[in-house]
Amino acid sequence: MVDVLQILSPAGEVEANELPEGLGDELLVKLYRQMVTVRTIDTRMLNLQRQGRIGFYGTCKGQEAATVGSGAAVEMRDWVFPALREGGVLLLRGYSLEQYMGHLVGCSLDPAHGRQMPCHFGSGEHNFLTLSSVIGTQILHAMGAAWAAKIKGDDTVTLGYMGDGATSSTDFHAALTIGAVHKVPCVFFCQNNQWAISVPFSKQTASDGIAVKASAYGMPGIAVDGNDVLAVYKATREAVERARRGEGPTLIEAITYRIEGHSSSDDATRYRDSAEVESWKQRDPIERYRAYLKRRGLIGDEVDGEIHSSVKQRVDAAIKAAEAAPPPALETLFTDVYAVTTESLKAQYRDVATEDGGGTNEGAFPL
Ligand SMILES: Cc1ncc(C[n+]2csc(CCOP(=O)(O)OP(=O)(O)O)c2C)c(N)n1
């Protein structure tokens, strides 16, 4: 059995001197606020989907520590290549709640102008690729971008996420092989949430976890308690620093659990035992971290209540703004195609604008 890095005990205690470097009081509380934000959004979004107000959603519930802890360990100049559940990392990087809700609603606040599958956030401005539903592809992209950075002499690191299911893809093999051979500055981060839709981890691989696979590729492999935000932060931070020093990639396996169904289209009660879900709920990453922060005196009931209510207010306001916003402007259908809009696209715009009266200025191309 491989050693699993853990800093926070299940009761939320930390041994003296075990706190990772660089984690000051402000960042400790920020991590908590961010985990609460992700949980609040997920709960609301699943409800909104059930009410028919958004089309599709996949939650990160249970995986907040793995997501937020790893996302906080990279710098803004680094690039993130998410898998399916890392929208919270994009929020950490400054993407607004209005953009987040706008994307889910598909309105004019959506930076993708409603032309992306819902719950597939991305933003070039935030060095964050679009969430990847095509399982495994982003692992190669993360490796390739890191390799490019190395060739160019940038000191940028890439963080490539994947689920346990993605480790069975050929892209995983290719990315880790090439990444280790060329010592690229990439951190491969596997969120082992025990299920790939209805396939349990025991059917995914017969190996003793994912981290052990790293040694065959020629890189360090770290197994970490994915419900322990401090351990996740430490493991990722060290891997990022190692990559930045030119020492090559690291594979991190965060051992965690997907509490909800795979997505809003899934009924997980069809294939897994509720007792298993209940046992993981007992290891809730937010409860555990809250116990630690309270014990340290960094938050009390009052501050905790303030965090929850301010997050709720901000989420409510963002939903309201997204639902009130108009659809994306008609001309974006044409202006988003090429850097410079061609004459034939301008002519098509004029036809459509005249036909449906939806253009900003009938007959004239707006840009
Ligand atoms: C290349 C490819 N194969 C199959 C699918 C169908 N599919 C969608 S999600 C999923 C499971 C993903 O599991 P995992 O990588 O563990 O991520 P998780 O959903 O658990 O976060 C599969 C097989 C897909 N989207 N892409």
Structure description:
This protein is α/β, with parallel strands linked by helices. The chain folds into two domains: 4-324, Rossmann fold; 329-367, no CATH class. Helices cover 45% and strands 9% of the residues. It is built from 14 helices and eight strands. It has helices spanning 25-50, 64-71, 87-92, 97-105, 137-152, 170-181, 201-204, 213-217, 229-244, 274-281, 285-296, 301-324, 332-335, 343-356, and strands spanning 4-5, 79-81, 158-163, 186-192, 195-196, 199-200, 221-225, 250-255. Strands 1-7-8-4-3-2 form a six-stranded parallel beta sheet, sandwiched between helices. A two-stranded antiparallel sheet has the order 5-6. β5 and β6 form a beta hairpin. α1 (25-50) packs across α12 (301-324) and α5 packs parallel to α6. The protein is globular and about 70 Å long. The protein starts with a strand and ends in an 11-residue tail after the last helix. The model has no long low-confidence stretch (mean pLDDT 95). The structure holds thiamine diphosphate.
